[in-house]
């Protein structure tokens, strides 16, 4: 069976809440067409906004200008979702399992409070990637998020578990208030990396412009577990899967001593 493809008829005037489509696996194409989606003060049938083709409701493809489509894949289980372009805010929020592949950029709070599965973003991600929602105390809690472009500020804020991989740059306060888990950044990070970090690891390919003064320089080390950690990423379509980008020699900074202080920033050493 071919994947169920939803093609936007025209760009919506209001932002659209795509949450109901997360139950698509349990529905028939006709039932999906009859679902109603909130857009502003009005609810629209799916087939009023999209043209539907295909039969396999476990695989969804979204086509068209999806910048105003929010909550794609929210709390989804075992769905394979592909967005052939940009996506709105909260993409993959709370996703339990499956895969969300966005071939363009995503807006704020992508993969926030993710529980499992794989989120792949071929473009750039907005602020608060994998973070907690305002007022909540736990960010992403499992799974892997891969960004092939850049990530905004507060990447992984209050991350509890899981892995965030950024092939490009990350903004300010990368890994802020990290509880556990790992964030790896191949490019440059902005100011105050690891601010308020409690436990967990911030793994960097490049030396930050300044490491916060509440971190202690623990010197250079050869860490035997790093090659094993990189080997666990070989299944990804990413530069992180390339053995040429792996290393085991790092400079370690322990902290944040203004918080619990059991975390670390590891910077690739020559």
Characterization of the model:
This protein is mostly beta strands. Helices cover 6% and strands 31% of the residues. It has three helices and 17 strands. It has helices at residues 29-34, 46-49, 225-231, and strands spanning 3-8, 16-17, 36-39, 42-45, 50-53, 56-63, 69-70, 79-83, 98-102, 118-121, 141-147, 161-166, 182-185, 201-204, 216-222, 249-255, 263-268. The strands form three sheets. The chain has a 13-stranded mixed sheet. A hairpin with a 7-residue loop joins β16 (249-255) and β17 (263-268). It is elongated. The termini are far apart. 44% of the residues are buried. The model has no long low-confidence stretch (mean pLDDT 96).
Q: What's the topology here?
A:
Elements: E1 3-8, E2 16-17, H1 29-34, E3 36-39, E4 42-45, H2 46-49, E5 50-53, E6 56-63, E7 69-70, E8 79-83, E9 98-102, E10 118-121, E11 141-147, E12 161-166, E13 182-185, E14 201-204, E15 216-222, H3 225-231, E16 249-255, E17 263-268
Parallel strand pairs: 1-6, 2-7, 6-8, 8-9, 9-10, 10-11, 11-12, 12-13, 13-14, 14-17
Antiparallel strand pairs: 1-5, 3-4, 15-16, 16-17
């Amino acid at each position: 069976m071919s994947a169920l493809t939803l093609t936007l008829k025209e760009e919506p005037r209001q932002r659209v809440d795509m949450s109901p489509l997360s139950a698509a696996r349990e529905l028939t194409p006709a039932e999906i067409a009859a679902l109603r989606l909130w857009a502003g003060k009005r609810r629209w049938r799916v087939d009023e906004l999209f043209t539907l083709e295909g039969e396999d409701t476990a695989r969804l493809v979204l086509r068209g200008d999806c910048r105003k489509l929010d909550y794609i894949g929210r709390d989804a289980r075992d769905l394979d979702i592909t967005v052939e372009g940009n996506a709105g805010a909260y993409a993959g929020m709370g996703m339990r399992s499956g895969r969300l592949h966005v071939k363009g950029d995503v807006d704020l709070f992508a993969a926030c409070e993710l529980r499992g599965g794989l989120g792949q973003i071929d473009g750039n991600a907005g602020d608060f990637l994998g973070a907690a929602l305002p007022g909540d105390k736990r960010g992403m809690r499992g799974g892997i998020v891969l960004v092939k472009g850049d990530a905004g500020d507060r990447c992984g804020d209050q991350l509890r578990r899981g892995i965030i991989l950024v092939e490009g740059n990350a903004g300010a306060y990368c890994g802020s208030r990290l509880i556990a888990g790992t964030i790896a950044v191949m490019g440059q990070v902005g100011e105050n990396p690891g601010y308020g970090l409690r436990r967990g690891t911030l793994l960097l390919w490049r030396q930050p412009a300044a490491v916060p003064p509440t971190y202690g320089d623990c010197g250079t080390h050869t860490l035997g577990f790093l090659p094993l950690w990189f080997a666990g990423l070989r299944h990804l379509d990413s530069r992180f899967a390339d053995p040429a980008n792996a290393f085991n020699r790092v400079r370690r900074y322990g902290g944040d001593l203004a918080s619990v202080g059991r975390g670390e920033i590891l910077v690739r050493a020559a």
